[in-house]
Structures are given as C-alpha cells and as structure tokens.
Amino acid sequence: MDEEKYKNELDKELRKSSFIKFFPFIGKKYKSIFPKIMILGESHYIDPNIPEEEITEELLEEWNSDKYSTRYVFLDEYFPGIRENGTHPYQHIRCYRYTAAMITGKDYHKSDYIWDYLSFYNFFQINVGKGSKGKEYINERSIENSRRAYFDAINILKPELVIAWGNSRLYYEWIPQDDCQNIDDNIWLYKYKFLPDTTIWHTPHPSQGFSYEWFNKEFLRILKCLNLDISKMYED
Length: 236
Known about the structure:
By secondary structure, the protein is an alpha/beta fold. It has helices at residues 11-15, 57-63, 69-81, 94-104, 140-157, 169-174, 212-226, and strands at residues 25-26, 37-41, 44-46, 118-122, 127-130, 161-165, 180-184, 189-192, 199-203. The chain has a single domain, classed as Uracil-DNA Glycosylase, subunit E (3-Layer(aba) Sandwich). A hairpin with a 4-residue loop joins strand 7 and strand 8. 33% of the residues are buried. The mean pLDDT is 93.
C-alpha cells in the first residue's frame, strides 16, 4: 500500500491530539482557500458481517486505531470509482455527492471537484456499532472523547464554516450546545463563544430525502448572512 497518498501536511498537528483517532480527509487545495469549509459526518462502523462471537476488545481496539479510514473512503472508493459517464457504483457515495452538489449548485455528477477545497471529519472517534444502523458501542466516555477530538479538529483545520450531517441526535445529544450563540433561530446555525471564527450549520443527513437544489439556496443565503464568498471554489 502506498501510504504517501494518505498523508497530509496537517498530520503533524493532528497527531498532537490525544483524542483524534481517525484523521480527516483534507482536500489538496483546502489549506490555501478562504473560506474553509469542513463537512462533519457522524460515525465509523465495523463490518456487519463479523460474527458477534468474534467481536472482542482486541478486535474493537484494532478497528479503532485506523487513523486513515476517512481518507480511504475518498482516495480508495469515491474518486477512483467515478465512471466516464459520471455515475458511481457505490450507494454510500451519494452522501458526499449530494453535499458537493449543494455547495456548487451544479449537477450531481459535475460537483465532485469541490472536494479539492473541502475537508471531511467524522464526529465519533470510535466505531460506534456494526453496520450503518449500529450504535451499540456509544457510551458517555466515547461521547466526551469525541467532543474533545471535534474541538481539536476545528482548531487544527480552522474552518470558517462547518456543515454538519444531522439535526437530530448529532445536534441534540452528542455535539455540545453549551456556550453557544445562535445566529438564526429558524435553522441550526450557531457558533461557540470560544470559537468565534467558526460557524456551524446542521443539515439533515444527506443519505436520503435530501434535495441538494433546495439546500443550495439555503446554503447561499447562509453565506450571504455570514459575509463569506466561495466564488474561488468554482475554479475547477
């Protein structure tokens, strides 16, 4: 395996965190762009086909030590899987493509390039369960450690805007809502008083029932509200 392709110049800073276990995907133009946008996913999961009797503490520890799993999705599955006609064989990739299309306002099959300018980070720093529905490994400790990792990631990646996938449990239970300043009471848009340069916006999870056309209009409205210009991101 060519480990060089998974490395990023910010890895040195990420390693300083005692809580970040899964390194974020960082687009190759992310560091030089303004404003920076970080997409926040929710979870990692272990293979649902592993028999229950084989799941041991050692196995979970092994699965939770892969610092590059988020990058594998992009570098081994997402980008290489795009076909000449713009389609993709993997259904789970639609979450990333819906998000890209929401940001660009362009077609679903013509927005993949925007990830060169974005970062992506998952909130939970453990595998939370078996398969995409599993949540059996979440506990108070994993939530607290993931919160600390989340703030470490923001301090390292320094995004002006975080677009969080989820406005139910991710918002109400897992991401802390203390010491926040609401920017728009009609939507999930706020910032922490101790992170004045970063605004967080929660959208529904884009895995299903997500209209990127509608959310693009909302996204542009939010950018105007925050006085952020992303026109340079369209230079593909």
